[in-house]
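Hey, sorry to bother you again with one of my protein questions. I've been puzzling over a protein and I'd love to understand its fold better. Take your time with it, there's no hurry, and the full record follows here:
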Amino acid sequence: EVQLQAFGGGLVQAGGSLRLSCVASGFTFDGHVIAWFRQAPGKGREGVSCISRSDGTTYYTDSVKGRFTISSDDAQNTVYLQMNSLKPEDTAIYYCALDDSGLAVLNSLTDATMNEDWYDYWGQGTLVTVSS
């Protein structure tokens, strides 16, 4: 059974940093795409970043470019989202998701968006709160 568990959320002041972790289990961690989405209070789910496990290609939504970094640790079956220079508008529940086909990063680079329908499995979410 594929499982994704997201960790690392918390309360931080504006300008601070947090690192989120997404631990994957129940499958061979290779050739897939892992993504981070977020959902702010009263808003829809928004794609933040994704990474291809096959070649390390990444995609970031415009609002986090230069502040967030996504990375992958094969040995730990874990994908990280390093979030720096956090802003109050980054406050949200952050979810990690997995794309079985491995095409989601290419699709994002082509379409300049992240579509949650491209993803097959979802973690439970971790809350990030940024105070002003």
